[in-house]
Recover the amino acids of this structure.
């Protein structure tokens, strides 16, 4: 009897082991911003990029660090947030670059350039990297980040390094002048926003007084990313279309270069600079698993 009982126990143990081996492993999926969202609580400190669920069930994302200001009242600190639009590439409408991919793209990035700051800025231009086919969305995200990579040395530089240029960016022919000072409008941020008229225009579009407070572009990550998205989505620069339109209409990466630096780089102006941008774009599209498309050069 004892031997039979031991044998039965052994058989039961082997059965359990077999079940464990045959049972499929459970894999944890990466949680999106809304999956981790907690109900907003007054007096709680929230950092830029945090998504909260308000008392009415709607979601808001912190545009700036704040000590628990009411999202419905303090609209400079909070923006309404659509849960499909966060940084989870697996969800419809989400930014097609994950945080892990972002970190791969910019391994030496300055801590100022946070992924959460970029995600917080997306609400300002919801069509960005969210228009057209999946391929076009990925291509636009890669194109934007490739130009950013070139402009900032891999998201290393927050401000323009040539300080001798600083006094040149004040156009006093503008009726509003340069209230922050002659040398206050130097290049800042992912696309190196410069000139008093650009700070004025970007600030007006974003509802932020950048003409008087240009330093926000180098101290607030969400504001910094928003200025780059403002240029990308609304400005033609020396080109004939915005970089956003160039990508969603399949005009090619080369047209984004033309809209940013025109003849300074294109048409033989500086082929080395063009190649630097194109190489970054090819690297990023490869990382995202999408073809770069045609018309890469300008």
């Amino acid at each position: 009897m004892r031997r039979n009982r031991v044998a039965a126990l052994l058989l039961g143990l082997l059965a359990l082991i077999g079940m464990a081996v045959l049972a499929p492993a459970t894999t944890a999926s990466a949680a999106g911003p809304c999956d981790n969202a907690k109900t907003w609580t007054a007096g709680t400190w929230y950092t830029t990029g945090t998504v909260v669920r308000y008392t009415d069930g709607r979601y808001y994302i912190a545009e700036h660090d704040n000590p628990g200001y009411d999202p419905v009242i303090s609209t400079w600190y909070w923006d309404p947030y659509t849960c499909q639009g966060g940084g989870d590439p697996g969800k419809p409408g989400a930014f097609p670059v994950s945080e892990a991919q972002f970190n791969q793209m910019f391994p030496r990035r300055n801590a100022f350039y946070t992924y959460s700051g970029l995600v917080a800025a997306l609400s300002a231009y919801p069509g960005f990297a969210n228009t057209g086919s999946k391929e076009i969305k990925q291509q636009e995200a890669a194109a934007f980040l490739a130009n950013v990579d070139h402009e900032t040395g891999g998201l290393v530089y927050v401000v323009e390094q040539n300080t001798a240029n600083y006094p040149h960016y004040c156009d006093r022919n503008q009726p509003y002048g340069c209230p922050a000072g002659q040398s206050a409008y130097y290049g800042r941020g992912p696309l190196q926003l410069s000139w008093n008229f650009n700070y004025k225009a970007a600030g007006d579009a974003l509802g932020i007084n950048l003409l008087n407070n240009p330093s926000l572009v180098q101290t607030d990550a969400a504001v910094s990313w928003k200025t780059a998205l403002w240029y990308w989505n609304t400005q033609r620069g020396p080109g004939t279309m915005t970089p956003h339109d160039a990508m969603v209409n399949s005009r090619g990466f080369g047209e984004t270069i033309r809209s940013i630096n025109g003849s300074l780089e294109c048409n033989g102006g500086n082929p080395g600079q063009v190649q630097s941008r194109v190489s970054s774009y090819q690297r990023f599209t490869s990382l995202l698993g999408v073809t770069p498309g045609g018309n890469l050069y300008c």
The first strand starts at residue 38 and ends at 39. Residues 1-31 have pLDDT under 50 and may be disordered. The chain has ten helices and four strands. The longest helix spans residues 2-22.
